[in-house]
Batch of 2 targets.
Target 1
Amino acid sequence: MPIDRIIIVGGGTAGWMTAAALSKLNDADKVEIILVESEQIGTVGVGEATIPPIVDFNRLLEIDESEMLSAIQGTFKLGIQFVNWGKLGDSYIHPFGNYGYEMEGLTFHHIWHRLRQAGDKRPIQVFNPETMAAYYGRFARTPENQREDLPPINYAYHIDAGRYAQFLRRYAEKRGVTRREGRVSDVALDGETGFVTSITMDNGETISGDLFVDCSGFRGILIEQALETGYEDWTHWLPCNRAVALPCARDDGSPPLPYTRATAHSAGWQWQVPLQNRNGNGHVYCSEYMEDDEAHRILVGNLAGKPTADPNFLRFVTGRRKKFWNKNVIAIGLSAGFMEPLESTSIHLINTGINKLIALLSLDRVTTVQENAYNRLTGKEYERIRDFLILHYCQTSRNDSAFWNYCRNMSIPDSLAEKIELFRTNGQIFREDDELFTETSWAAVMMGQGIEMQGHNAMADTIDLATLKPEVDEIEKSISFLVQHMPAHKEFLSQYCPAAE
Ligand code: FAD
């Protein structure tokens, strides 16, 4: 069957990102796109920290960055600060850019370790521009005519989730996407193929389609309720299953930080996402070790100012749908699976889901080859991210609560155990299957969590120290020069993208 009509069910971040991206197909007037959402049900209302590929997503849609950030109270993000994770009192930044640069084909942390062994005391952080800018609360985009010896600045955004969805809604509707308000109360399947043929709204209207994108959030009304796809539960490795979200004012007068903060507590962790006008906050925790009241109390006790809304309590099960693409339904967003927002990966998975869908989509028909490829690639993406998240929990020396004792002693996937041991032995990191996280990301979190490299790649020993040291000194000098000449993050925001009224 040719695809003449695509139905998107759900108008949260996933639904409107999908609609905005697919609306590019509308140019050819080949396919009709309808998005159905229910104001009565609403959206999950969280999801405000992103990672750098979001910048490319917006560029692909030719969205003006300053206009968007202005409309959604957005700020810039250079990385994530982890507080109290390896042990109480610890803090480290997982930055978005690299440490130094590759030398003789070796990732910089090998070079750094070689110098360390030769008595150099400098922490690896001084060789990363994003970390240094974050420490100083500064930000600037890389100018096109920047000096060649200065590194680029990699960044993402902090966004107001509701405003971002509304911004994309305006974008998609301008490009021909039709929005229908109402609750989907029934889903019809073809008796022979099992494909979804139509949805029925609670006002009795039936909307038929050829391809359906399930962006209905945790409900998964097409992928699960209608197609019974099944769910793989990862609670054993990622035991947190509750969150309470609560925005607050910044009454302490502090400027918006150019990074997300993740502070570990006794049975989970708290996020702080600085927007221009407020902070987004939340406490992710495990119900086996903490009651809702206590989680709420801890959160309220660690805010930068007065709460600006009622607490939003959420429940989830970490894991993934057994199939993300099943027959003619593709699940994108929370309907596809969920991993807690420790590394801000959910919106990214929406982005990559959309990219793969557009790459695989043929308007002639849906085939099992497309379905299998999508499921295989997405499954690998989920697993790589899962392992990266588990690393934050299992590599801790915290023993101050039953929760951390569990995390420290739980069994971990073989794929992760191998990665940790390779890094410990000689700093080796293999990036697999185009995985999201770079060698710097893995190195930053491994070292941040307290794993010490016992050696480095033997090739690093073949480089002459007398030539190595001045080159490394230059990297530090360039970064220091770059950061000292950046404006404060707040100042950059007020010039580049001041919040719209
Ligand atoms: P939702 O926002 O739940 O939207 C579902 C849509 O489906 C709504 O429009 C709803 O009305 C509609 N719908 C549902 N049922 C029906 C029906 N029967 N009929 C009609 N319409 C229906 N991600 C990040 O990248 N960074 C973060 O910092 C981050 N933090 C998070 C913190 C928490 C605690 C949680 C739970 C998630 C977080 N996420 C984060 C994930 C992020 O919030 C989601 O990926 C994102 O908001 C997309 O959600 P969604 O659109 O899939 O679902």
Target 2
Amino acid sequence: MAETLSAPQAERKKIIFSGIQPTGVFTLGNYIGAIRNWGKLQEDYRCVYCVVDLHAITVRQDPAALRRHTLEAYALLMACGIDPEKSILFIQSHNPHHAECAWVLNCCTQFGELSRMTQFKDKAARYADNINAGLFTYPVLMAADILLYQADLVPVGVDQKQHLELARDVAGRFNNAFGKTFVLPDGYIPKADEGARIMSLQDPTRKMSKSDPNPKGFVAILDEPDVIMKKFRSAVTDSEARVAYAPGKDGINNLMSIYSVFTGKSFPVIEEEFAGKGYGDFKTAVGEAVAETLRPIQERYKELMGDKAYLEECYRRGAQQAMAISGRTLEKVYKRTGFIPSGR
Ligand code: TYM
């Protein structure tokens, strides 16, 4: 894999990079907005995927929990179909080039542009007692993640769009100052009604998030079927009781998007299927479709977690493959910046 990525630009397959934070079990939002696409893309692209533990510590983490969540996230990505034989799958802190490149890019990023990042503003409000410098410069580390692999496409949910635009701006600025070094990445973001932003089941005006203090707001990929059913049955909807996609019906629109993604049915087909039926029947059907899709993922996850030696073999190899690629970019970056080659 590392070998083939170095093929000349003209004949190379497009490169994909994406990452996910190991801050808890992934939600249905992570799965629909991003991970579901990661597996599909590995057939046609050269894919590099990463469990971004360096990003996770911008919010205070318990060390033992972070270690556990990181391994779980790695196994869960594999259970969701990321094949370490087809893609490079690694843990961010195992590759020091990310932090090194981020430093150089920090010096090409303006305080003003980082101040405009909505995720920073949200998190600074949520974690007011720990507004650390890492939280502020988080998007620069994300830019380094992407740019080190010369990624063409970045499959993410819509909440990451602003960070992606920043990565493009920083890459363009570096290229202008020092000569073309980075590929400018594009987003690969699902359409609005195809899961770009899955909403909380309890407050459908807010994004579904794994850090939601109310567990009824999100479905975790490892939730048991009866828990999934309960969460969908108690999902907040309007009082109209008609299954139809319409502006302002945030709760039902969200459930329709989820059902559509899991069954492949279009909105008109769903509306017809539930014509004359209440929300209760619909919520049950959504819960069943989700539980059914997640069942094989959960089974595979359990198998993988039972074989820690295999996981270790995969993430160690992944880091080596990743470093072979990112090392070439970092060398170029250092040279262009004006650093004396260390010969390492
Ligand atoms: P993270 O860990 O918050 O989320 C991982 C992916 O899941 C998507 N996502 C959603 N999509 C739809 N609906 C939702 N409710 C929802 N919640 C999360 C996110 O958009 C994301 O694609 N900063 C990133 C991680 C990262 C990264 C990168 C991504 C670090 N470096 C480089 C791409 C490229 C993050 O916090 O994602």
